[in-house]
Sequence to fold (365 residues):
Amino acid sequence: MEAGIVGLPNVGKSTLFNALTMSKAAQSANYPFCTIEPNEGVVSVPDTRLGRITQYIVPKKIVPAALKLLDIAGIVKGASEGQGLGNKFLTHIREVDAILQVVRCFEDPDVIHVAGKIDPVNDMETIELELMLADIQLLDNSLDKAARTAKSGDKDAKQRVEVIRKCLAHLQTEQPLRTLAFDENDQKIVTGYGLLTAKPILYVANVDETDLGGQGPLVQKVRETAARAGASVVPVCAKLEAEIAELDEADRGDMLAGAGLAEPALGVLAREAYRVLGVQSFFTAGETEVRAWTVPVGATAPQAAGVIHTDFEKGFIRAEIYAVADLETYKTEKDIRAAGKLRVEGKAYVMQDGDICHFLFNTAK
Fold:
């Protein structure tokens, strides 16, 4: 899964990206377009259940789930019309599964705001408008082609025309497409166009070190605005997180404790990003490795097996499943099985977050 970190220039995007990916590269200069190509990083998703599992099943390797992050250059007002680096930014956003928008909620006279003032709600509205205008432009261009094809009687084209018109009508009300409901077939069309405002969004309120809990008035305004759009907010002090990321593992705990934080921001952000993306984790556990895998909420057992290897899904026979709590109670898989707690599930089983699985499959299929 991929998430793109977006925001106006100088809101702390690259600082946050470097902290999350534990990059020790020099922080970006105080210029609007210092990030031209999106930086990419793959980060491990913290999950305490891995530690709980490995207390009883000791592997040679532990592999957490991963989230790919893209640091996308700052968007400015008029980007949909080519201002700044214009559509270059928007193209990068079309390729991600979710948007993490960094909103500046701190004062610093040494870091110039592109709008000349600190107004996070205005920043949110500026970017949302640019994304909506870009979607309108793409849909207008696509409508003519779909309409011409539909005249020949093509059923798929007729459906595309209906979906495009539905989307355009909604956007004209100045509402993003993520607030519009689609059935499964229509959703495939929307996804195929890579529409920006249809992507789930998570707002990251970049706060200063005096407001780590995000209780200040600027963050409250962000929460109110996000709530009206059905989105959530995570407060993060990117500057502090960058300092923590520079420390050795042994020293991070002391700095976190001194700041009153239980964990680095990655843990909170990753879990909330998972929720926004509509995904969850299941585990495989053995002496070779204990690994977390990512599947969409609602995935079936064969689909989960296919995440490991496509042959596992094609030749799926059944899954043997138990919970982390079962392992903590009975200590070994042998005793879990003896207690009747190891479940045998078939093709219709819907995966639950935290399932520990063994998949049985036929390679001849």
Q: What stands out?
A: DSSP finds 14 helices and twelve strands in the chain. The mean pLDDT is 86. Residues 120-150 form the longest helix (31 residues). The longest strand covers residues 289-296.
